[in-house]
Amino acid sequence: MQPYQILLIEDEDIIAGFIEHTLAKEDIQVTLMSNAEHAWEYLRHQSPQIDAILLDRGLPGMDGIEFLHRLKRDPELHRIPVIVETAAADQESIQQGIDAGAYYYLVKPLQRELLLPIVMEAANQYRNYRILQNSLDETSQALGMLHDAQFNFRTLAEARLLTNALSKLFPEPKRVSSGLLELLINAVEHGNLAIDYEQKTHLLMSRTWHKEIEQRLRDPHYSDRHVSVHLQKQPNRILLTITDEGEGFDWQPYLDIQPERVFHLHGRGIAMARRISFDSLEYQGCGNSVQVAVHLG
After folding, report:
1. For residue 253, what pLDDT band results from cuts at 50, 70 and 90?
2. Which helix (H) or strand (E) is 241 found in, with range?
3. What is the pTM of this model?
4. From CA 71, how far away is CA 215, in angstroms rounded?
5. Phi and psi (nearest 5°) for 81?
6. What is the rounded CA–CA span in Å between residue 269 and residue 282?
7. What is the Cα–Cα distance from 158 to 274, expressed in whole angstroms?
8. What does the alpha-carbon distance between residue 190 and residue 1 come to, in Å, rounded to a whole number?
9. Each residue's pLDDT tens digit, 193-215
C-alpha cells in the first residue's frame, strides 16, 4: 500500500516539526504549508492525492475555520477529512468547527498517542472512500432493472462489495455510498460482533481493530450471524432496511454529532449518513434494524 499523504497547515515550526517527526516514524508522508491561502492554491491547482488534512485553527490571514468552510463548499475536495488543531477547547469553538465540517479536534499541546491513530483512521477511511468511488464509476445498467431484493452478508469485505453494487441503484451513487458503507460496517462490528463503543475506542488506540474483527468472525459464537439488507424500489423513493442479529443499542445519541464526542476516535458515521447520504434515516425496535430512504424525482 502506498504511504498515506497528509497535508499539514501549521505556522508554528516546533509543532510542525513534532507532527512531521511523529508521522514519519509510520512512513506517513507530510506536505507542510504555513499559510492557508497557499494550501488552498496547492489543493485547487496541483490536484494532489491527499488522504487527510491537519489544520491549525489559529492561522494568520485566512484562519482554519474559513479554510474549512471553503474546502467543504468545493465539490472535488469536500470529502477530505480535516483534523483541526486548536488551543480553544470550549464548547462554542468546538461546535463552530463541527458545523464547518471538522472530522476531529486535537487540543494543543498535541499528544503523540492520540495524533497517530487519529490521522491513520481518517486517512484510511478517506482512501477506502476513494477506492469505492473509482469502482462506482464502472456503472452497470442491468442493476437499474432491480426493484425488490434481499441480500445477506457477514464480513466487512462483503459489506464493501454490497455497497458498491447497491449504490449504483441510486440517482447519486457517490452521495449514497459512504453513508451506506458506514451503516453496513456498524451492523457487522457493533451488531453481529458485539463490539461496543468503548471497546472500539481501545482497539483503535492500540491499532488492533482489524485483528479483533477477524478473530470474532472466526469465533463460533458469532460466525453464523449475518446482516440482511432488503431493497425496495418504489415509484417515488428507494428504501433500504438493514438488520443485524445483535442485541441492538441506544441509537438516539448518534443521530447528530455531539460536542462531547468530538474528541472521540469514532462515532460520527450514523450522523454523517443521516446528514449527507440519505433523505431519511430511522432506527427501529431495539436498534438492530435501520431503514434509510432516498427520494426519486
Report:
1. confident
2. strand 237-243
3. 0.61
4. 39
5. -70, 135
6. 14
7. 22
8. 27
9. 998 878 888 888 888 888 999 99
